[in-house]
Amino acid sequence: MKILKIQTLRGPNYWSIRRHKLIVMRLDLEELADRPSNEIPGFYEGLVEVLPSLIEHFCSPGCRGGFLSRVKEGTLMGHIIEHIALELQMLAGIEVGFGRTRETPTPGIYHVVVEYKDEQAGRYAVRAAVRLCQSIMDTGSYPQTELEQDLQDLKEMAADAALGPSTETIVKEAELRGIPWTPLSARALVQFGQGIYQKRIQATLSSQTGILGVELASDKESTKQILREAGVPVPRGTVVNFLDDLADAIADVGGYPIVIKPLDGNHGRGITINITTWEEAEEAYDAAKEVSKSVIVERYYQGRDHRILVVNGKVVAVAERIPAHVVGDGKSTIQELIDETNRDPNRGEGHDNVLTRIELDRTSWQLLEKQGYTLETVLPKDEICYLRATANLSTGGIAVDRTDEIHKENIWIAQRVAKIIGLDIAGIDVVTSDITRPLKEMDGVIVEVNAAPGFRMHASPSRGIARNVGGAVIDMLYPPGAPSRIPILAVTGTNGKTTTTRLLAHIYRQTGMVVGYTTTDGTYIGEFLVEKGDNTGPQSAQLILQDPTVEVAVLEAARGGILRSGLGFDASDVGIILNVAADHLGIADIDTVEKLAHVKSVVAEAIHPNGYAVLNADDPLVSAMAQRTKAQVAYFSMNPDSQLIKEHTRSGGIAAVYENGYISILKGDWTIRIEQAVNVPLTMGGRAPFMIANALAASLAAFVQGVDVDVIRSAIKTFRASSNQTPGRMNLFNLGNYHALIDYAHNPHSYEALASFVRSWPGERVGVVGGPGDRRDEDFVQLGKLAAQMFDRIIVKEDDDNRGRERGDGARLIIEGIKQTKADFNYDTILDETKAINTALDSATVNSLVVVLPESVSRAVSLIEARNPIPEAVQQPATVESNNAVTSSVGN
Questions:
Q1: Which residues pair with residue 6 across a beta bridge?
Q2: Which residues, including other chains, have CB under 8 Å from residue 245's CB and lie 6 or more apart?
């Protein structure tokens, strides 16, 4: 077996719309291509010995043990590897369940598709699965040490990639509410929402958290001072920087017992409580100094430790925190009780799990000594031995929910404290012997106010009710009715994607909204280019959706990006599918137009149910996508008498058609005429039918999104097929005695669309033609045939990047197609694109049209603009006597 390629999908994709996170491995089974598992001696037995847990895989039989029965009866290795890759992840604690295995058009080569939670772990799992199967085939087994190492590696990868427990509570709530989220690459930030509606968190700091509040909370002494002045009960204390000042500080707070803690500490580090002697005080001072330059000395208040969580000015949860401890059984030593406690699967390292393992430190030995114990002491039954001085969960403590028990006056104080300090999310630490009674009655105090408080104790308490504290944060960031998503309009198809995307963005710009859009020539925000290049994949889409200035996104989605990584968004409001025609066939195992349609249909399927799929009624492969989408459907057509359009509008549907020379919207019994095609510059005076179709699609998409018809009309009348607005898409230049046209046609469908305009040119038609080197031989021949039908004279050139082809091979095939059409056709071969273009322009006859189909649009534009073309005046709309806003279809 040989792994040929591994890809990571991160959005709706060819394999699944719902499961966005998939690993796709292209696997060559080689000698196993025709050898099922039952023909491999000892394989079934070896697999069961190594992974007996595969008994839980149902597979197609639909019952426990179903998969293993398939292995025993005989199934191919790709299918087995799929299940093993899933099982390895599950054994490592990663919950996954989706997989697919399908043979590619190349016999013996398979796509093995496996769900993942963490990309690195998913890629590791598929490789480990191949390695495991190969080992069983070669030796009859897989070493236990190797399996254990695989699982350990997977666990570490998952742990490294996991969100913190507090972040996870907020993210899960966002997912439940359909609010999109994405991790950002810097400082463990997480973004919720899109564009102008985005919010960010870092642990439990939010984008609404004020820096002044965070700074104040971080300065414990200043916090106490502010609260004391506001009449809030706080411990009596002072700050010292030198050991020589410690004795005076102890006297200032009223003597022993005292607490010593670092001024800038967290998670309970360097804190010592209930100090009663000078020796303890000195040792505690040294421990605090290791954490902070300045040390706080406070009076020690007897009572229980509580954390009150305030979010957006409201108390949302209260927990009593109990320090790490063990309870005697009358038989076990304290060390044995600690070991037993740490075996609890809910305990992990740090914040990895619901609880944290108990680890002993300096204060633990002090506490044991004060209680008269050692680790070898057998603790009497039901007696408690405390092992930590502080009650932090990160040091092994537990939490008991007290939300329903807190006194209303204590709620008022906590909410007031959060506002005094200036925190939207605050964890307020309270010491009191009874939280059900007012603090002033119990001599209770607020000992600390925490910015970025942990949520684990509230979301997963050891005892009591779990509180939806993540929901409180989401309520604050997105109050009921507040939007989290910007409108997303996705555009795909074989041809016309970029033009339609740019036109749609132009329409939206007329509304005053900031538009972010992606195309094959770059990523744009407003009027500015952010990033140049073929940016039709998910990374470019994410750039737009993460930008805080963007109000609407228009995203071109090409087949390559969908296959490589999936869509860059979970769902759109409008998905436009323009057409599906033969292009890129044979690449990435897509060898038929039907498979290509399946790729394009991902855009139709990934639309919100209340959104719209805008489909080409004239293309059967596209119109059939109405059956695949859960969204509403709107059709566009160049044929006003289309039976599909008539049936659709008769049942109340919306459509756009080209009728009586108009680009019109049909809605129920009404025809809403937007504009005559001759007045739309993009359509070249109505002579470019494929451009009319693009205008129909864009107008319809804007209309179903609620854009006013007058805005659409104004936009399509001011959008030109220029090298500035649509580079490489029907860019016509007036060079005085002749014209030049640049178009990025590169497949048979686009050649045929271009021909509908070129054939109407009154003078000589000259073509500078070529094709991308990664197309099939028959595609090049077909381009030659179509070019010979379109032009009077042809110069055959090649791209600079032949994409693996031998130099001259593509040109040879195009010439073969030309000769098959007309043996004595007038053509020339100039492989260099620059020389070919200049030769065509130099030899242009009067009134001729030189059509350049370039590899590099920018280079072709530069060569033509160097000849000083005459600026084209903006075409004035024709005067037409009609009510071009709304007309009734009844009686027309």
A1: 25
A2: none
Let me know how long the chain is.
892
Residues 74, 79, 83, 88, CA torsion sign: positive
pLDDT tens profile 724-746: 777 878 888 999 999 999 988 87
- Rg of the chain (C-alpha set): 35
Residue 21 has pLDDT above 90, yes or no: yes
Q: Write down the pLDDT at residue 881.
A: 34
Say which amino acid occupies 503: L
Q: Which two tokens stand for residue 410?
A: 């204590």
Comparing CA positions, the residue from 234, 240, 233 lying closest to residue 260 is 240
**What is the overall mean pLDDT for the chain?**
91
Question: What does DSSP assign to residue 1?
Answer: -
844 phi, psi to nearest 5 deg: -65, 135
| Whole-number Å distance between alpha carbons of 389 and 257 | 14
Burial status of residue 152 (CB atoms within 10 A of its CB: 0-12, 13-18, 19 or more) = exposed
Tell me the mean pLDDT in the region 136-154: 96
β-bridge mates for residue 181, sequence order: 192
pLDDT band for position 882 (cuts 50, 70, 90): very low
In angstroms, what CA-CA distances link 379 with 330, 331, 337, 360, 374?
6, 7, 9, 17, 10
Helix axes 709-718, 689-704, angle to 10 degrees: 150
Buried-state track 232-266, b at ≥16 Cβ within 10 A, e below 16:
bbbbebbbbeeeebbeebbeebeeeebbbbbbebe
Q: How confident is the model at residue 535 (pLDDT cuts 50, 70, 90)?
A: confident
Question: Which residues have CB under 8 Å from 300's CB, separation 6+?
Answer: 256, 257, 258, 259, 273, 274, 275
Torsion angle of C-alpha atoms 696, 699, 705, 710, degrees rounded to 10: -150
Helix H or strand E encompassing 168: helix 165-176
The answer to whether the beta carbons of residues 507 and 712 sit under 8 Å apart is yes
Q: How far apart are CA 437 and CA 433, in angstroms?
A: 9
Query: Within 822-853, where are the H helices?
Result: 833-842
CA distances from 648 to 613, 651, 655 (A): 13, 5, 8
**Six token digits for residue 726:** 């649509």
Give the residue among 817, 835, 727 at the shortest CA–CA distance from 776.
817
Mention every residue, 6+ apart, whose C-beta is less than 8 A from residue 862: none
What is the C-alpha to C-alpha distance for residues 671 and 579, in angstroms, rounded to an integer? 24
pLDDT in tens, 607-621: 999 999 999 999 999
Task: Evaluate the omega torsion of the peptide bond into residue 480 and state whether it is cis, within 30 degrees of 0.
Answer: no
DSSP 674-711: EEEGGG-GGGTTTT-HHHHHHHHHHHHHHHHTT--HHH
Q: 36-65: per-residue pLDDT in tens?
A: 999 999 999 999 999 999 999 999 888 899
Continuous H helices in 332-455: 334-342, 362-371, 408-421, 439-442
| CB atoms near residue 531 (< 10 Å) | 13
- Amino acid making up residue 438: P
- Tell me the C-alpha distance between 357 and 359, whole Å: 6
Element (H, E) at 650: helix 643-650
Predicted confidence band of residue 584 (pLDDT cuts 50, 70, 90): low
φ/ψ of residue 796, rounded to 5: -90, 125
Tell me if residue 398 falls in helix, strand or coil.
strand
358 pLDDT band, cuts 50/70/90, is confident
Check pLDDT > 80 for residue 799.
yes
Euclidean distance between CA atoms 204 and 169, whole angstroms: 10
Write down the residue that tokens 């699982």 correspond to: 151
- How far is residue 648's CA from residue 635's CA, in Å, rounded to a whole number? 8
When mean pLDDT is compared across 596-600, 719-723, 865-869, the lowest value belongs to 719-723
Across 510-528, average pLDDT: 93
**What sections of 290-357 are H helices per DSSP?**
334-342
Is the pLDDT assigned to residue 481 strictly greater than 70? yes
